[in-house]
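re: ur question from earlier - yeah i can do the single chain one, its not a big deal. heres the input i used so u can compare w yours
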Amino acid sequence: MTKKNEETTEKSNEISKIDNTEKKNEKTSQLSDAAIKNVMSEIGDLTDEDNEEDVITIDSNSENIEETISHLIATGHMFKAHVMAKKAFLKYPENTKLAQAYALVLLKTGAIEDSRKLVYQILQIEPRKDEATEQMMITIEDLRKCKFLMEGDPDLIAKVGHIFKEDWKYSHHCRDLEIARELYAHSFKLAQKTNTGMNAAWLAWLTGEDELAKQLASAVLKLLPPYGLDATFGELIDLAEAQLLLGREEEACKLYEEAMKQSDKESYISVVEARQQLYFLREAGFKVPNAALDILIPPTIVVFTGHAIDHPSFQVSLFPLEMENDVKRIITEKLQAINAKIGYSSASCGADILFVEALQSLGGEVNIILPFAVSDFIETNVRHAGPRWEKRFEKILATAHTVSFACEDRYLGHDMLYRFANHVMHGSAVMRGKFLTTEPHLMAVWHSRTDSTPGGPTDFIDRWTNISTLHLIDLDELGDAENNGVEKIDTALVQKQKNSLTFDPFISKSPDRVIKSMMFSDLSGYSKLQDEHIPSFLDFLDKLNAAMEKIGIDLESLNTWGDAVFAVADSAIKIADFGLRYNDIIENLGKKYPEFPFPIRARISLHSGPVFVAQDPFIKKMNFYGGHINRAARLEPVTAVGQVYATQQFVALLHGETNDERNESLQKGLKYYDRYSTEYVGMISLAKSFGQQEVYHLRWK
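and the output i got, formated as C-alpha cells:
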C-alpha cells in the first residue's frame, strides 16, 4: 500500500465544513430546482452508501472544500476526491462550483456518461441526439445563448471548459473540443488570463480555426511586457507557447529559458506539464522544435538493484561490510552525474539502503517496493547484517516518498517473489517515465563473476534492453579481488541456506507458486433480470461466447459462474487484450436487446500476483488459489460500470511487458504503436473490507 502523503492528509483533515454563504454571481453559482431534480434522478451512484473508512463529515461552515477537492484531483487521489465531492454535492446540490468539481471527479474515475449529464445540468442546456455520433450532445449555438455563459464566473467557465477538453480524450468527438474552445475563449474575454487564452488558442488550432488561434495568441502576448519581465513560471510558459503558435521559435525558446530560471521555485510537475504539452502538440501535427524540448529537462528516474551485505552462510564473499563507504560514494557520484531526482528500489541491507540514503541526501524522491511481507523481508534481507542496518531500514521506510508492495503475502521460501518485485519496480518506473516524458535508467551494484539467480542483480541486468541507460558498479573490481583462475563463482557458494531461516516447516511445504495475471468480470444488473428475460439473456451469452472465440487469446484458465467470468494468463498483455475486447463486445452487444430493462454492461477488474497452482480435488483439473485471486475478485464490485480497472501491480507488469516489446521492435527496425492507456484513478477501498488498493483505468489508446 502506498504511504499517505503528509501534505495531502493534512489538507484532507481540514475538511469539516462548507461555506454556503457566498453570494457573488448568485444567479449562476446555483443550479435550478429542476436541474437538481434531474441530476439526482439520473446519476446512478449518488445514493450508494460509502465504505465506513471513506466517510467524511461535511459541515456547513467550511471554506476549503472546493480547494481541497481540486488538490486531491491534482495529486491523483481520485477516489478520496470522489467521496468528498459526492458528499458535498449531495448536501449542497445547488452549488454550481461543487457540481463542477464532482463532474470532473466522475470523469476522472471513468463515469463518463454521469459526468456529461451533470455538466449539461450545470450549463442548463438540454442535449440533443447528434446524427453523426448518435450521442446526446449540445450545440455551439445553444452554448452561446445559455445564461451560464452570459453571466457566469470566468474561472468556473474555464473549469467547465477543462472538463470538455478532458472528455475529448475519451470521446474523440470534435464537438467536445469546439465547446471547450468556446468556454475557454469566453473566460479569456472576461478575465484576460494567459492560461485560459492559450488553452483557447490551441483548441482553436486543433479545430482548424488557424486565424482565431493566432489572434488569441497575439492577445496573450499583449498581456505582459516583452520576454515576460516579472512574469511567473506559468505565465512565461504561456507566452512561450504563444510565440510557438505564431511561428517564432527563437523567441519561444528564450521564454522557455527564462521560465527554467524560475524552475527551482516550482514543483518539477510544472516543468513536466509544459513538456507534455509540447509532445501533445507534436503528436497532433504541430511543428515543435527539439530545442524547446531540450530546455524543458525532466528529472532522471533511476531503478536500482544490488547485492545485500554478505549473509553469514555464504562461503564466498560478494559484499563485505568494509566496502560500504566506497559503494555509497560511487552511487552518489553516479546519481549526481545523471541528475537523478526519482528512484525506485527495494530495501535490503547493503546496496539498496545505500542507494536510498544517497538519493535522499541529494534531495531526491525515493519509492520503495518490497517483494513480500515486512516481517519476512527483515528476516531474510536485513537482520543478518546486524541491528545497525535494521535501524537504517526502519528510517528509510519512514522517510521514503512512498512504500508499496509487489506482494504483501508471506515469503515461504519462493525466490520468484524477488523477480516479481523487479518486474513491478521496472513497470512502475516506465509508467512514471511516460508521465515525465523520459526513460528510466537502471543502476546496479553487482558482482561480475556471479550467475543469474531469480530476482538478483544479474537477472535484472539481463532483462534491461536499453544499454544506454544502464549504470554498473562492479563489486569484483571495487574489491580488487584476485580471480585465482576462477571465472565464475558457483551460485551454491553465495546462496542463503534456507534451513538457517525461521520459517514454519509446515507452511513452507507449499504447492507451486507462480506469477499470473487474472481478470474478474460480471454483468451489471444481472441479478435484477426476471424469468421472462432469461431466454434473451442466454442468447446474449451465446453470441458473446461466439465473438470471444474469434479473438483467440491464449488463456491458461477460463471459468464462468452465471454472469461472472474468471480468466488467467501468463502475461499481463494477454489479460489486457482479453479484458478490453470482452468489454468492447459487451458494450456493442448489450444495446441489441431492447427487451432488457437496461443495457447489459460489464464491470471488469484486472490484477497480477503470485498464486498457487494445484489440482482441484473435486473437478480433477488444475486450478489457482491464494490471496491475490481474492484481491482481483474484490476489485470487480467497486469498478465503474462499463470500465476496466486494473491494480498497480497489473499495470506495472503491463508497462514492463510493452516496454520490452517496444525495445525488441525498435532493435529490429520496426515501428511500435502503444495500444493501451492507463490513467491513475487513486486509492480505492475493496469490497467486503478487503483493504485498499491503488487502481488505474485501462482503455485502448
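Residues 1-29, 32-57, 59-63, 499-509 have pLDDT under 50 and may be disordered. not sure if urs matches, ping me
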